[in-house]
Write a structure and sequence with these properties.
single chain, mainly beta, 206 residues, four-stranded antiparallel beta sheet
Amino acid sequence: MLDGMLARKVGMTQIFDETGNAIPVTVLRVGPITVIQKKTEEKEGYNSVQVGFEPISEKKVNRPEKGHFKGIAPLRYLKEFRPDNINEIQIGQTIDMSIFKEGESVAITGISKGKGFTGVMKRYNFGGFPASHGHRGPRAGGSLGQRTTPGKVQKGKKMNGRHGNKTVTITGLNIVRIMPEDHLVLINGPIPGKNGGLVSLYKSNR
């Protein structure tokens, strides 16, 4: 079977275990996904399966994309996952959340919330300067480079700029509960992205 699935982040809540302890969880609406294309080592150089997620109106799909789906109902998002045995996968096959089980360790990839243009104190948790006489910029980043040699700002210098809105992967999360009737999976702790955002849920042995 595949090593992951696509999901939507619903939001956060809490549940209680048998001893009454509250567990913060993130609710994901997982799958189902449909197999669109198989990529083999003989043709593409690696084994992979392209799947589609969430139906979309045919009016929003151009002619090349309609030919790519080849009789399958158009889907909004396409992504590749690695299969255990590609010979067991069939084009048009629907895969649901049954590939996961409660207590399993997973990794989640999503796009973090964008926070716009921020300074170094908010972006990198800098301490800032004393807000006393003689300091004109208590929230500034301080010295940016050296003198004549090398005479430039080094690459990777922590400076102000766009904060968030980048791909983030969190590993070591556990599946607390699976609700197959509602296509919901409860993950312990927070995951990247806003409510309603698209995330990838992977099997993980970390």
